[in-house]
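B., you asked whether I could sanity-check this one before it goes into the benchmark set. Here's the sequence:
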Amino acid sequence: MGRHIGKYQTMEKKKMTAQEAAAFVQDGFNVGFGGFTPAGCPKVVPAAIAERAEAEHKAGRPFSIGVFTGASTGDRLDGMLARAKAVRFRAPYQSNKDLRSLINSGETDYTDLHLSSLAQDLRYGFYGDIDVAIVEAAEVTPEGEIVPTSGVGILPTICRLAKKIIVELNDRHPAAIRGMHDIAEPLDPPYRKELPIYKPSDRVGQPFIKVDPDKIVAIVETSEPNDEGSFTPLDDVTKAIGENVARFLHDELVAGRIPKEFLPIQSGVGNVANAVLGSLGDNEGIPTFDVYTEVIQDSVIELMKKGRVRFASGCSLSVSRSVIQEIYGNLDFFKDKLLLRPVEYSNNPEIVRRLGVITINTALEADIFGNINSTHVNGTRMMNGIGGSGDFTRNAYLSIFTTPSTAKDGKISAFVPMVSHLDHSEHSVKVIITEYGIADLRGLSPRKRARCIIDNCVHPDYRPLLNKYLERTKNGQTPHDLKACFAFHHAIAEKGDMHLADFDK
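And here's what the prediction gave me:
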């Protein structure tokens, strides 16, 4: 009893302000942050680090850190650190406009990685030491048990590797969520074994992160909500995409190319993803299904309440504030239907292939042969990053990419002769779907893929141009005219409209 009381008193002595905790982070450090999307990310300590950086810069001293996370974060992490010019290096993914600007100007070094690979790359020593881990927790015990909140990311790895751990203890997340997480780390080669997940609800770890309590140097008590993303109301284009995805999967089910029990669904982030999931839920020909994904959004929770989603496994509960409150207020209903894992498991290629996950992700740009650009505007400017789309696409039972056929009031075609940057090649992409229709690319040669995409997915305004391009070159397995293949990109850069593309210029 006395020993336990002593441990408790020791943990109490570690409670301090965010500013005091930020003093443990020094210029040049590599810092690992918990969470995945804004869900589960620390908030007040990163803000205090940003304040410190600004003060150091004002005094004429350098201050910047390497930032490692599970995925993107909230503005109070990536945004504040970026505006303070405190980010020397960033991996593996981001979505903040201020950080994006620094990356594209070359002021911040950025490595865009498959999300499932970062934790193991850190363990392999590819990026140097992790000096400090900063994590958000619903509970931390004197024995060193840390219960994460609504996002996991790379938590177990950064906590084990870090020399020091700072915990943001956030009472917005009840300690009663203990049991919603499945925390594990695989062994590294040459000792790695299979990851024994045979259905989305299988557990392989424990409901908390276990650390040496002596490594916890600071506990900062907070009551901060997650940064909340906004969704615009579904328009006709988004609804049509969702309905086309649902129709395609229903037809595959009827044709016997999907097992009658159906298969787990992975869906990306954003309005289109929400529309797709909503349409799947509304289609009575599709049975109740499981979700095996990285980000669990509002639409999943809504379908769970309707009895259309049986179980959801992910890396984060990236839901609106009202929905997270609903979950926490009804834990008896949700707790055995939701499971949060490290990204190394949620996105693991071995598990994705074993479960037969049907993957649905969004393309920034596609070409007429089925190659996908997920990351770079006009081939040069980073948008966000590849995220988990590569983890899922290459290993999917069925890999589907969705996109509206145009952007910027029709001045940009989502389909071009050749993608300006390649993230997912034709070898991995099985189906492309827009508001106009479905391009089933399975078993098609490049020429037939082009015909299928132009006829079914491209906006009618751009079909004549892309047909004209396809007719220019008759030779080769993939018929490209290397002098004309980027005419669409030249047109938007020089004239502001891809309709004005000139293949002969």
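One thing to flag: The first strand starts at residue 30 and ends at 33. Otherwise nothing jumped out at me.
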